[in-house]
Amino acid sequence: KVAEEHPDEIWCDSLKLGNLQLVSKLKNPSDSCSVDVSTVWWEGTGSKESRIITACEFTVSLWKSLDNWQWRKVYTWHFTEIPVLQIIPLWDTCNLVCVALGHLEIREIRLLFCSDDDECLKQSLVKSGNIKAVLGLRHKRLVCSNGTLHDHQVDLMTFSGSGRSKEKRTLMSPEETILAFAEVQGMQDALLGTTLMSNIVIWNLKTGQLLKKMQIGNSYQASICHKAYSDMGLLFVVLSHPHGKEIESMGSPIFRLIAINPKTALSVDVRPYSLPQGHTGRFLDGEVKDNLAAAVLTSGTIAVWDLFLGHCTALLLPNSDGNWSFVKWSGTDSCLLAGQKNGSVFVYSY
Amino acid sequence: CSESDLGPISLNWFEELTSEAPP
Predict the structure, then answer these.
(1) Nearest CA in chain B to A232
(2) Which residue, A195, A225, A227, A349, is the most exposed by fewest CB within 10 angstroms?
């Protein structure tokens, strides 16, 4: 009877934490502001294991797993001049990770690794300039777009196993600012991007060709692409709209799934992913992995959606330590890594 | 999603667009 009278209230209560279970907490004692978290495969004394990597303003730290979901900080890379903005994981690599450094925009991308000979921490400059978007891809590759309208360039870099050398090739530029890149699940040679002028662009990574530039309408202005899936001749793309206006009839969609026919460049809305009633906020940071999307909202809450089910499956409200400021899916298992500016990272199993 | 909304669908769109795009 209560559920009938107050369906939204009951649903929200059951949503809090939802499918998430807290398994571990890392506390970075550094005084500086935490900015990002990710996971990386790391090979130490003969065994390959998943480790957590955290970024503060001027340090990046690697955490080794101990027994009972405890973590110990084992390495820290230090940066002196430009602050760290984000971690860029290279998903199927071992002992390699990239970071983006800059103030408001990315100025440098650096590769972090550990020397084989003396196990010393190393870092090397991969790219510098006015970098607009970057993404780590499978097979030790990284794509980034840089420059202004007149000298705009899209570079694809492939690293060697040790990270010491790299091979660079240029992808054809769409001649406008790229806001984000996304890999296409089910089509490993395809790369997708969203642009400032509401276009979705597709490249062939093998040939470097720009295959299509598709207008997706004004309601999608400044969209960020997170993930794309190729199925039955269509591209299904998950977008977020950090600067989007609220559409009353749809509530406040944080993510949106659209279907595009790449042959005709026609697209349709498939599904909005909105917050449950009683919750508000705009997209601040987020990530999509397989069928799960997670976002930190301006309200300081983290929300999780199952893209197949179509609704929010978990809410992490701000805790006594404060608001959430970044969220990532673990690349190596089904864990959610939720971070706060004060250096706390909470690991939730999903 | 139907062909009336999205136009003719091709399962080989990636190969077809690659052969049509400038090298």
Answers:
(1) B11
(2) A349
